[in-house]
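[step 3/7] fold_predict: job queued, chain A
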Amino acid sequence: MEAFREILWNVPGGPWAIYPVALVVALILLYAGFVRFLDVWRRGKPEDRFHPFWSRIGNFIKLGVVEGLIHRKFLRELYPGIAHLLIFWGCIILLLGAGIDFVGHYWFHSWVHGTPFLIYSLINDIGGILVFIGAIIFIIRRYAQKPGAFQERLDRSNDDLIAVSLILAVVITGFFVEALRIAAVEPGTEAAWSLWSPFGLVISKSFIGLSSGTNLVLHQALWFLHLILAAGAVVYISLFYNKLTHIIVSPANVFLRSREPKGALQPINLEEAETFGVGKIEDFTWKQLLDLDACTRCGRCQEICPAYLSGQPLSPKKLIQSLKEHLLEQSEYPFKIKVPKTSLLIPEADPPRSLIGEVIPEDAIWSCCTCLACQEACPVYVEHINKIIDMRRSLILEQAKVPELAEPILTSIEARGHVVIGTTHTRTDWEEGLEVKHLSENSQVDLVWWLGCQASLEDRSVKIAQAFAKILKAANVNFATLGTEETCCGDPARRMGNEYLFQMQATKNIELLKNYGVNKIVTTCPHCFNTIKNEYPQFGGEFEVIHHSQLISQLMKEGRLKLTSRLNQGITYHDPCYLGRHNDIYDPPRQVLAAIAKGDLVEMERNHWNSFCCGGGGGRFWVEEKQGKRISDVRIEDVIRTNAEIVATACPYCMQMLEDSIKSKNAEESLKNLDIAELVAEAIE
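[step 4/7] structure written:
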């Protein structure tokens, strides 16, 4: 006899037991999404996140394979990553099984007969087991392990417990329905088929002593309970936006993610904007509000945030959850659930709260280094940085509030065109004895070198400029600089929130570069590199931009740089955030260091995308920590643990931050901090 199973066996009314329930659930799902859109997301300002539509579809499919099917970001943390992978793939298998039941019942009957049916039964059981194991792991992780820092990350909310309980309830009742079906059928040929439903077969042993009639009644009762639980779960998560809503909202958020370069901030149209930045929740765009619902409170962003880990008053997770709580306070959405009190909201402030100050404290807004670690870790592509910068814009441009130590920097950029307060140098003093050409003297060059404020004006960073000039000359590169015509690229102004000053600097620099017919630019500063490469195109400045680490690596590969010596000391490399996470440049600096070191490069525990910030980005270079440790001190502890004698950098801001921390740790005798240009210049002399 051919193996088969009658679909909806022992269910009175057959399909009519399912379809009315499915219709009601579908209507509730549509209603909940419609109400959420009208009363919550639509509060935000307009933003086009759909074009180019077909290109988005293609990228979404590719990303779905990498981030969804393969779980690339989730598996960076194996423990929770594997649990999520088990539940994800288990649910996919079970949904496919339900789909096969549906089409097999009406059309493709062969799908539920013979060998295909047996294989289908086994795979379906495996899917249920995967979900069961994954859910148990999550319960152990969240509720059985000791609290502490782990508790701070995971919250242990009732909402989370309801979510995992619903999953378990649906899966367990499904297995019991299967077990009662197996126990109720006559022994014989069908008993052999049951071997292909191993988990249900094991449970069925519990019902062997019951009569066939009792098993049939229990089967019917459990089947309807299973249906009610499944339908009720969908209704609950639809109306109350339980954590499981991320099944729908998170893929939508990924599809609508920014198509701009990672290192580019969104510009303000200064001539048409009614507000500058975000001072109220309604000032965010609708996509930024969708971000708040997409967040699952997994804590990955918090666990990698240098501000949070060094004791600063910022957690990217809490920031997003605070905004979400405030958004729901302001809305009239009828179905609300209380999330854990892990937000940044000021406890003493009663609704209605002001967004800046009572919902998000100003100290938290200024604590961000814009290092992008939070966004790199987020599996659902929540965009934290733009929200923080938008609030900074409101503070500076509308409320005239600037951190005390940062205000002189913005004044210096506007008045003197640089950020190095107190310097006695001009932008060309570093050139003494190097015979560097300027574009004003000769614009027929292959490459324009943009030095940046630090490398041309700050005492320690000047050595980087001198070393790189020697490298360019040794390789016979036809280059020139802007000399005294160079001015700040505007990065510090934009990251601190002064968009007006940034656009003024950008417009002036783009016009200057275009007047000279500049095509290719090399920078020694990752911040200048990121700004000119990724943000100047927003204002018509299209240039080919490379970082000096990339150029040095290229010159070495071409044989234009001849090494005369190699280093015996142990070297470790610190990834600058604006070179690594913002622009995915990780290999060229390491290739350079590998060429000049006799031994292997010693990697810190946190490296590449997981590198720890020096604390100097986002204007934090000029803002003093009021609590916790200096971020650069935490990073130097990473360096010291490698036992390396040299920490190589590729950013003048990192250079100065780490150098200060080396001094604070009294490690000057055992640890040197050198830019890769300095190391190469020494190796070719």
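[step 5/7] annotate
The chain has three domains: 14-42+77-255, 290-398, 408-684.
The CA atoms of residues 56 and 439 lie 41 Å apart.
exit 0
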